[in-house]
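Re: [ENG-882] Designed sequences occasionally contain unexpected residues at chain ends

Forwarding the minimal case from QA. Structure tokens:
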């Protein structure tokens, strides 16, 4: 009964999560700061609760990464160079924690192969950096490091998906591709061309990329449980 109740709660909260993502992406609440903060700020807490209810292991690193990502969002609410720098540094720490999770989840650590698989992701990310580098100040360095870590995550995801046919690798690959696209669209929206379509895309990609990584976490934990029971 408890498991059934938990599953129902996860399903309901997941539907609410995507409703929030859709509402926040298609409607601009910038003229209503309090509503903007409540709706935008509810996304990560919702995902934390969904993960907490669904997971049997409660990965502290992942929960810490989500909390950091929430604070990065708060920093980016105010469009000032100082807040942008703080937001980029917090985002870098968040990405490092995500990298640690992914690194610890894989068996094959052939770094040469992983590096080669990371190149397409890194060049895509570098293109976005070069596109907006004249608008970046000191925060360019955290973003470059962020891109390097994101590319490594993408390389790990691609390599493991090709050689290990597992659900967790599928979700990790989808999440990694969306991470790169999300950051690129965020760059364009924040530093290059502030158009409504890019704002909507950033929010949608934010929601889906984080949800697909949550799915990776669940499948990875289930895989670890199967190994421990065998």
């Amino acid at each position: 009964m408890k498991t059934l109740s938990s599953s129902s709660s996860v399903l309901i909260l997941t539907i609410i999560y995507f409703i929030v993502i859709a509402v926040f992406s298609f409607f601009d609440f910038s003229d209503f700061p309090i509503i903007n903060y409540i709706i935008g700020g509810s996304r990560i807490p919702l995902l934390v609760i969904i993960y907490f209810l669904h997971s049997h292991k409660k990965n502290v690193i992942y929960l810490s990464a989500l909390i950091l990502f929430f604070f990065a969002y708060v920093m980016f609410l105010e469009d000032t160079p100082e807040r942008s720098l703080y937001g980029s540094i917090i985002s870098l720490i968040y990405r490092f924690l995500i990298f640690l999770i992914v690194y610890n989840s894989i068996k094959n650590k052939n770094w040469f192969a992983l590096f080669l698989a990371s190149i397409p992701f890194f060049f895509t990310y570098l293109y976005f950096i070069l596109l907006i580098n004249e608008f970046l100040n000191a925060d360019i360095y955290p973003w470059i490091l962020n891109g390097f870590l994101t590319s490594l995550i993408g390389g790990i995801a691609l390599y493991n998906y090709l050689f290990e046919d597992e659900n967790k690798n599928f979700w990790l690959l989808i999440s990694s591709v969306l991470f790169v696209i999300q950051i690129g669209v965020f760059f364009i929206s924040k530093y290059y061309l502030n158009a409504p379509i890019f704002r909507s895309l950033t929010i949608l990609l934010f929601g889906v990329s984080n949800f697909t990584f949550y799915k990776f976490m669940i499948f990875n934990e289930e895989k670890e449980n199967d190994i421990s029971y065998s």
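QA comment: On inspection the terminal residues look reasonable. The radius of gyration is 18 Å. Proposing we downgrade this to a documentation issue.
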